[in-house]
Amino acid sequence: MAVVTMKNLLESGVHFGHQVKRWDPRMKKYIFAERNGIHIIDLQKTIAAIKDSYDAVRKITSAGKTVLFVGTKKQAQQAIQKEAERCGMFYVNNRWLGGMLTNFSTIKKSLQRLKKIEKMEIDGTFDNLTKKEVSALQKEKAKLEKNLGGIKEMKDLPGAVFIIDTHKEQIAVAEARRMHIPIIAVVDTNCNPEGIDYPIPGNDDAIRAISLFTSIIANAVIEADNETGLKILENLNEDEDGVQTDVAVKNDDVEIEDYSNYQPTEQKEEDIEADEKEALVDEDKVYKD
Protein backbone atom coordinates (compact mmCIF):
# COMPACT_ATOMS: atom_id res chain seq x y z
CA MET A 1 0.00 0.00 0.00
CA ALA A 2 1.04 3.59 -0.59
CA VAL A 3 2.47 5.71 2.22
CA VAL A 4 -0.16 8.37 1.48
CA THR A 5 -2.76 8.91 -1.22
CA MET A 6 -3.69 11.95 -3.26
CA LYS A 7 -7.10 11.90 -1.57
CA ASN A 8 -5.47 12.16 1.87
CA LEU A 9 -3.49 15.20 0.76
CA LEU A 10 -6.46 16.96 -0.85
CA GLU A 11 -8.76 16.37 2.13
CA SER A 12 -6.09 17.75 4.47
CA GLY A 13 -5.62 20.92 2.39
CA VAL A 14 -1.94 20.17 1.79
CA HIS A 15 -2.10 21.84 -1.65
CA PHE A 16 -2.94 25.34 -0.33
CA GLY A 17 0.08 27.63 -0.20
CA HIS A 18 0.40 31.26 0.88
CA GLN A 19 -0.68 34.41 -0.88
CA VAL A 20 1.17 34.99 -4.12
CA LYS A 21 2.79 38.17 -2.80
CA ARG A 22 4.32 36.25 0.13
CA TRP A 23 5.99 33.50 -1.84
CA ASP A 24 9.66 32.57 -1.93
CA PRO A 25 10.80 32.32 -5.60
CA ARG A 26 12.96 29.33 -4.70
CA MET A 27 9.73 27.34 -4.23
CA LYS A 28 8.76 27.89 -7.88
CA LYS A 29 9.47 24.29 -8.94
CA TYR A 30 6.98 22.98 -6.36
CA ILE A 31 4.12 25.31 -7.36
CA PHE A 32 1.44 23.97 -9.70
CA ALA A 33 -0.70 27.07 -10.30
CA GLU A 34 -2.31 30.19 -8.81
CA ARG A 35 -5.96 30.41 -7.74
CA ASN A 36 -7.58 33.57 -6.37
CA GLY A 37 -4.25 35.02 -5.30
CA ILE A 38 -3.18 31.78 -3.56
CA HIS A 39 -0.42 29.49 -4.78
CA ILE A 40 -1.41 25.84 -5.30
CA ILE A 41 1.30 23.26 -4.52
CA ASP A 42 2.02 20.42 -6.96
CA LEU A 43 0.88 17.34 -5.02
CA GLN A 44 2.61 14.94 -7.40
CA LYS A 45 5.92 16.34 -6.18
CA THR A 46 4.66 16.28 -2.60
CA ILE A 47 3.89 12.56 -2.81
CA ALA A 48 7.35 11.84 -4.27
CA ALA A 49 8.98 13.92 -1.51
CA ILE A 50 6.98 12.12 1.18
CA LYS A 51 8.13 8.73 -0.12
CA ASP A 52 11.78 9.84 -0.12
CA SER A 53 11.44 11.22 3.41
CA TYR A 54 9.67 8.06 4.59
CA ASP A 55 12.45 5.84 3.26
CA ALA A 56 15.12 8.10 4.78
CA VAL A 57 13.51 8.00 8.24
CA ARG A 58 13.24 4.21 8.05
CA LYS A 59 16.94 3.87 7.21
CA ILE A 60 18.01 6.29 9.95
CA THR A 61 15.85 4.59 12.59
CA SER A 62 16.92 1.10 11.48
CA ALA A 63 20.52 2.20 12.06
CA GLY A 64 19.66 2.78 15.72
CA LYS A 65 19.50 6.57 15.51
CA THR A 66 16.74 8.86 16.75
CA VAL A 67 14.55 11.48 15.07
CA LEU A 68 13.84 14.83 16.72
CA PHE A 69 10.38 16.27 15.95
CA VAL A 70 10.30 20.09 15.93
CA GLY A 71 7.24 22.35 15.67
CA THR A 72 6.68 25.26 18.04
CA LYS A 73 3.82 27.07 16.26
CA LYS A 74 0.44 26.69 17.95
CA GLN A 75 -1.05 24.61 15.14
CA ALA A 76 1.79 22.07 15.37
CA GLN A 77 2.37 21.71 19.12
CA GLN A 78 -0.21 19.04 19.84
CA ALA A 79 0.50 16.91 16.76
CA ILE A 80 4.25 17.04 17.31
CA GLN A 81 3.96 15.83 20.91
CA LYS A 82 1.33 13.18 20.16
CA GLU A 83 3.12 11.58 17.22
CA ALA A 84 6.61 11.79 18.74
CA GLU A 85 5.36 10.03 21.87
CA ARG A 86 3.49 7.46 19.74
CA CYS A 87 6.69 6.41 17.97
CA GLY A 88 8.94 6.83 21.01
CA MET A 89 11.00 9.73 19.70
CA PHE A 90 11.98 13.13 21.09
CA TYR A 91 10.32 16.45 20.38
CA VAL A 92 10.47 20.23 20.86
CA ASN A 93 7.04 21.87 20.70
CA ASN A 94 7.21 24.92 22.94
CA ARG A 95 10.35 26.89 22.17
CA TRP A 96 13.61 26.20 20.44
CA LEU A 97 16.38 27.22 22.83
CA GLY A 98 19.51 28.43 21.05
CA GLY A 99 22.23 25.78 21.21
CA MET A 100 20.00 22.73 21.53
CA LEU A 101 22.15 21.01 18.91
CA THR A 102 25.31 23.11 18.65
CA ASN A 103 25.75 23.39 22.43
CA PHE A 104 24.16 20.14 23.53
CA SER A 105 26.60 19.66 26.42
CA THR A 106 25.10 22.71 28.14
CA ILE A 107 21.56 21.52 27.42
CA LYS A 108 22.51 18.21 29.05
CA LYS A 109 23.27 20.06 32.28
CA SER A 110 19.78 21.54 32.27
CA LEU A 111 18.33 18.07 31.69
CA GLN A 112 20.34 16.72 34.63
CA ARG A 113 19.01 19.57 36.77
CA LEU A 114 15.45 18.69 35.79
CA LYS A 115 15.96 15.03 36.71
CA LYS A 116 17.56 16.05 40.01
CA ILE A 117 14.54 18.15 41.02
CA GLU A 118 12.20 15.30 40.04
CA LYS A 119 14.23 12.94 42.23
CA MET A 120 14.06 15.39 45.14
CA GLU A 121 10.27 15.33 44.88
CA ILE A 122 10.17 11.55 45.14
CA ASP A 123 12.86 10.82 47.75
CA GLY A 124 11.41 13.16 50.39
CA THR A 125 13.96 15.97 50.08
CA PHE A 126 11.13 18.49 49.73
CA ASP A 127 9.91 17.56 53.22
CA ASN A 128 13.09 19.00 54.72
CA LEU A 129 12.88 22.30 52.84
CA THR A 130 10.89 25.45 53.53
CA LYS A 131 7.75 26.24 51.55
CA LYS A 132 9.58 29.06 49.79
CA GLU A 133 12.42 26.77 48.68
CA VAL A 134 9.98 24.10 47.50
CA SER A 135 7.98 26.70 45.55
CA ALA A 136 11.14 28.00 43.84
CA LEU A 137 12.19 24.47 42.86
CA GLN A 138 8.73 23.66 41.51
CA LYS A 139 8.74 26.81 39.37
CA GLU A 140 12.20 25.93 38.05
CA LYS A 141 11.03 22.40 37.27
CA ALA A 142 7.93 23.66 35.44
CA LYS A 143 10.05 25.97 33.27
CA LEU A 144 12.55 23.23 32.42
CA GLU A 145 9.78 20.72 31.74
CA LYS A 146 8.01 23.14 29.41
CA ASN A 147 11.05 23.73 27.22
CA LEU A 148 12.98 20.48 27.61
CA GLY A 149 10.40 17.86 28.59
CA GLY A 150 10.33 16.38 25.10
CA ILE A 151 14.10 15.70 25.04
CA LYS A 152 14.50 14.70 28.70
CA GLU A 153 15.83 11.23 27.81
CA MET A 154 17.87 12.31 24.77
CA LYS A 155 21.48 11.36 25.52
CA ASP A 156 23.05 12.11 22.14
CA LEU A 157 22.41 14.26 19.08
CA PRO A 158 19.58 12.92 16.88
CA GLY A 159 20.17 11.09 13.62
CA ALA A 160 17.69 13.39 11.85
CA VAL A 161 15.45 16.38 12.52
CA PHE A 162 11.85 16.63 11.30
CA ILE A 163 10.68 20.27 11.17
CA ILE A 164 7.31 21.91 10.61
CA ASP A 165 7.75 25.40 9.05
CA THR A 166 11.41 26.13 8.31
CA HIS A 167 10.57 29.84 8.09
CA LYS A 168 9.70 29.94 11.80
CA GLU A 169 12.29 27.38 12.88
CA GLN A 170 15.25 29.07 11.21
CA ILE A 171 17.51 28.60 14.23
CA ALA A 172 16.79 24.87 14.37
CA VAL A 173 17.54 24.56 10.65
CA ALA A 174 20.80 26.50 11.00
CA GLU A 175 21.97 24.37 13.94
CA ALA A 176 21.12 21.08 12.23
CA ARG A 177 23.01 22.15 9.10
CA ARG A 178 26.01 23.21 11.17
CA MET A 179 26.06 19.82 12.94
CA HIS A 180 25.52 17.98 9.60
CA ILE A 181 22.28 16.41 10.82
CA PRO A 182 19.86 15.45 8.00
CA ILE A 183 16.80 17.72 7.86
CA ILE A 184 13.34 16.51 6.85
CA ALA A 185 10.98 19.47 6.70
CA VAL A 186 7.58 20.62 5.48
CA VAL A 187 8.16 23.69 3.32
CA ASP A 188 5.31 26.03 2.39
CA THR A 189 5.40 28.50 -0.49
CA ASN A 190 6.93 31.19 1.77
CA CYS A 191 9.88 28.97 2.80
CA ASN A 192 13.35 28.41 1.40
CA PRO A 193 13.81 24.73 0.42
CA GLU A 194 17.55 25.14 -0.17
CA GLY A 195 19.70 23.48 2.46
CA ILE A 196 16.92 21.06 3.42
CA ASP A 197 17.96 17.45 2.78
CA TYR A 198 14.40 16.17 2.35
CA PRO A 199 11.98 19.06 1.65
CA ILE A 200 8.27 18.16 1.60
CA PRO A 201 6.28 20.89 -0.21
CA GLY A 202 2.96 21.41 1.54
CA ASN A 203 0.71 23.49 3.76
CA ASP A 204 2.43 24.04 7.12
CA ASP A 205 -0.40 26.06 8.70
CA ALA A 206 -3.49 23.81 8.60
CA ILE A 207 -3.74 21.55 11.65
CA ARG A 208 -4.96 18.61 9.57
CA ALA A 209 -2.09 18.92 7.11
CA ILE A 210 0.45 19.11 9.94
CA SER A 211 -1.11 16.07 11.62
CA LEU A 212 -0.94 14.11 8.37
CA PHE A 213 2.74 14.88 7.73
CA THR A 214 3.73 14.19 11.34
CA SER A 215 1.84 10.89 11.47
CA ILE A 216 3.55 9.73 8.26
CA ILE A 217 7.02 10.33 9.74
CA ALA A 218 5.96 8.61 12.98
CA ASN A 219 4.70 5.63 10.96
CA ALA A 220 8.11 5.36 9.26
CA VAL A 221 9.81 5.19 12.67
CA ILE A 222 7.37 2.55 13.93
CA GLU A 223 7.75 0.45 10.77
CA ALA A 224 11.54 0.53 11.04
CA ASP A 225 11.38 -0.49 14.71
CA ASN A 226 9.04 -3.38 13.91
CA GLU A 227 11.28 -4.60 11.11
CA THR A 228 14.29 -4.49 13.43
CA GLY A 229 12.36 -6.47 16.02
CA LEU A 230 11.39 -9.09 13.45
CA LYS A 231 15.01 -9.47 12.31
CA ILE A 232 16.16 -10.01 15.91
CA LEU A 233 13.51 -12.68 16.45
CA GLU A 234 14.41 -14.37 13.16
CA ASN A 235 18.07 -14.47 14.19
CA LEU A 236 17.13 -15.99 17.53
CA ASN A 237 15.13 -18.69 15.74
CA GLU A 238 18.12 -19.50 13.55
CA ASP A 239 20.47 -19.72 16.53
CA GLU A 240 18.19 -21.93 18.62
CA ASP A 241 17.42 -25.12 16.71
CA GLY A 242 14.03 -26.56 17.44
CA VAL A 243 12.78 -23.42 19.21
CA GLN A 244 9.95 -21.58 17.52
CA THR A 245 8.88 -18.03 18.33
CA ASP A 246 5.52 -16.56 17.38
CA VAL A 247 6.15 -13.31 15.53
CA ALA A 248 3.30 -10.81 15.37
CA VAL A 249 2.41 -9.86 11.82
CA LYS A 250 2.65 -6.11 11.32
CA ASN A 251 0.34 -4.09 9.13
CA ASP A 252 2.22 -2.49 6.25
CA ASP A 253 0.51 0.83 6.71
CA VAL A 254 -1.15 2.65 9.58
CA GLU A 255 -4.48 4.01 8.49
CA ILE A 256 -4.70 7.79 8.69
CA GLU A 257 -7.81 9.28 10.29
CA ASP A 258 -10.54 10.74 8.11
CA TYR A 259 -10.04 14.37 7.13
CA SER A 260 -13.15 14.63 4.96
CA ASN A 261 -14.62 17.49 7.00
CA TYR A 262 -11.69 19.81 6.32
CA GLN A 263 -12.80 23.17 4.95
CA PRO A 264 -9.73 25.17 3.86
CA THR A 265 -9.88 28.93 3.91
CA GLU A 266 -8.79 30.97 0.93
CA GLN A 267 -6.44 33.06 2.98
CA LYS A 268 -4.25 31.82 5.80
CA GLU A 269 -4.40 33.36 9.23
CA GLU A 270 -0.69 34.12 9.03
CA ASP A 271 -1.22 36.09 5.83
CA ILE A 272 -4.12 38.07 7.31
CA GLU A 273 -2.04 39.07 10.31
CA ALA A 274 0.83 40.07 8.02
CA ASP A 275 -1.46 42.32 6.01
CA GLU A 276 -2.34 44.28 9.15
CA LYS A 277 1.29 45.11 9.92
CA GLU A 278 3.70 47.28 7.95
CA ALA A 279 6.81 45.62 9.38
CA LEU A 280 7.29 42.13 10.80
CA VAL A 281 9.83 41.07 13.41
CA ASP A 282 11.01 37.47 13.24
CA GLU A 283 10.63 36.31 16.82
CA ASP A 284 13.00 33.38 16.22
CA LYS A 285 15.86 35.85 15.78
CA VAL A 286 15.22 37.47 19.15
CA TYR A 287 16.47 35.30 22.02
CA LYS A 288 15.35 36.03 25.55
CA ASP A 289 15.96 34.05 28.70
Topology (SSEs and partners):
Blueprint: H1 6-11, E1 16-19, E2 31-35, E3 38-41, H2 43-62, E4 67-70, H3 74-87, E5 90-92, H4 104-122, H5 131-148, E6 160-164, H6 170-178, E7 183-187, E8 198-201, H7 207-239, H8 269-275
Parallel strand pairs: 4-5, 4-6, 6-7, 7-8
Antiparallel strand pairs: 1-3, 2-3
Helix pairs in contact: 2-7, 3-7, 4-5
Sketch the major β-sheet.
5 strands, parallel
Element string (H = helix, E = strand):
HEEEHEHEHHEHEEHH
**Cα end-to-end separation:** 47 Å
Q: How many H/I helices?
A: 8
* Broad shape: globular
Strand content: 5-15%
Radius of gyration: 21 Å
- Find the structural class using helix and strand composition: alpha/beta
Q: How many strands appear in the DSSP assignment?
A: 8
In helices, the fraction of residues equals 40-55%
Poorly predicted segments: 241-265, 278-289
Please list the strands of the largest sheet in the order they lie side by side: 5-4-6-7-8
> Multimeric state of these chains?
single chain
Structure description:
By secondary structure, this protein is α/β, with parallel strands linked by helices. The protein is 44% helix and 12% strand. It is built from eight helices and eight strands. The chain has a five-stranded parallel β-sheet, sandwiched between helices. α2 (43-62) packs parallel to α7 (207-239), α3 runs parallel beside α7 and α4 (104-122) packs across α5. The longest helix is centred in the last third of the chain and has 33 residues, at 207-239.
Write a short abstract of this structure:
It is built from eight helices and eight strands, in the order αβββαβαβααβαββαα. It is of the alpha/beta class and 289 residues long.
